Amino acid sequence: MPSGGDRHARDLIWGRKSDALRDLNRRRVLRAIMVSPGTQVNLAKFTNLSQATVSGIVQELQRENLVVVDGNDNERGKKVSLSNVRGVAIGVEVSYDTVTVAARRVDGDVDRVVVDWSGRGAEHGSQAWMRECVQLIGEVVRRTGLDETDIVAIGLGIPAAVDPRTSTISQVAWALDWERGMDPGARLQEHFPGVPVIMDNEANFAAYGEYLYGAGRGTETMLFVKSSTSVSAGLIIRGLIYRGRHGLASEIGHLVMDPLGVVCQCGNRGCLETAVGGARLVEQVRGAYVGYRVDLPNSLANIVERAKSGDLLCRRVLQDAGRNIGIALSRTCNLLNPEKVFIGGELGRAVELVIEPAIQTMRLHSLGGMFNYVAPMTVEASELGLKAGAQGALAYALTVHHIRPN
Ligand SMILES: [Zn+2]
């Protein structure tokens, strides 16, 4: 693995203070190359700049020895990537029971990403996950051949809604020791002075990851449902994350399925999450097996494994979860009519057990044109799986134009 060049990527996109249009455009192109080395045509699409502007900037960057342009196609079809630049982007996904950290060198291929997990997520308290997070970041950065001084930006995905205007929590699960108005991103930044930390809901980042690096590439509208301990979703419209006024858009887990149902951690009743959330599924299987088996499943991952190896009860519980998700998705899709739907999180690992029943149910309850007309909507498992959130977080942290004040 190359050792990196002399120029720091962080200085290139954050260091300059000039707001002159040319400088803003230059930083925009640099960010786009850092997110994904690509052709000038793709860079123009990603940045919303004209091809002539991108071409001029790429020539300037070539003269400064900051990019290399290669490939045998015509000028605009050649791939532009960074050279002589040191930098690594970090993405963090905090879930209820895990912290996932991804690191990718901004001068490398998008596939060369280092990902690591820890078993201490949000439910262990903010002290615990923050400590795990800082340690994992150090480890994955070293595995890219760089060190912490080379971190360009950190994206932090959390299992709570984040107000897009204030970057603070607008709603959180009551089970966690977080409060409305809190800013965990600022706390993480204390460990990495000078590095911008960009925070959002973890399902929003998972959707963004799938859109940029997974099976969602090139889609106009896509919905990503993350179904693990909690159930949430992210919506991408023309390359942008749709958040809504308070960051509460796409909260599919809290669509009411049964107004008289079980009380949900959000304070309402009968939400989708009370039917298909990880804890509920584990409870169902354990309840049915009480008195019969000693090795009761203790996690959703455990249930998925057992179902795959033929356990009939675990299979039934997952199939029912799929049907419930299908009902919630038909309502959502009748409202949004997306091009593609992805199911990720733990349940995304059980394609024929969860996704097939979900599709069958959607065919019964969605408007038929979505499935039967030209270029029908597709519903499939996430390609990036459990890595989607951390990868989307690192990409988004490179993309945004504002910096959290230090
Ligand atoms: Zn709820």
Walk me through the structure.
The chain is of the alpha/beta class. The chain folds into three domains: 7-85, Arc Repressor Mutant, subunit A (Orthogonal Bundle); 88-202 and 388-399, ATPase, nucleotide binding domain (Nucleotidyltransferase, domain 5), CATH 3.30.420.40; 215-383, ATPase, nucleotide binding domain (Nucleotidyltransferase, domain 5, 2-Layer Sandwich). 40% of the residues lie in helices and 20% in strands. The chain is built from 14 helices and 17 strands. It has helices at residues 9-15, 21-35, 40-47, 51-63, 126-143, 184-189, 202-213, 272-276, 278-289, 300-308, 312-336, 351-365, 369-372, 388-399, and strands spanning 7-8, 38-39, 67-70, 79-82, 85-86, 88-94, 99-105, 113-118, 151-158, 160-163, 168-172, 197-201, 221-227, 231-237, 240-241, 340-344, 378-381. The strands form five sheets. The protein has a five-stranded mixed β-sheet with strand order 8-7-6-9-12. A hairpin with a 7-residue loop joins strand 7 (99-105) and strand 8 (113-118). Helix 9 (278-289) packs antiparallel against helix 11 (312-336), helix 10 (300-308) packs across helix 11 (312-336) and helix 11 crosses helix 12. The two termini are 32 Å apart. The mean pLDDT is 91. Zinc ion binds next to loops. Residues 254, 264, 266, 268, 271, 273 line the site of zinc ion. Keywords: Kinase, Transferase. It holds the Pfam family ROK.
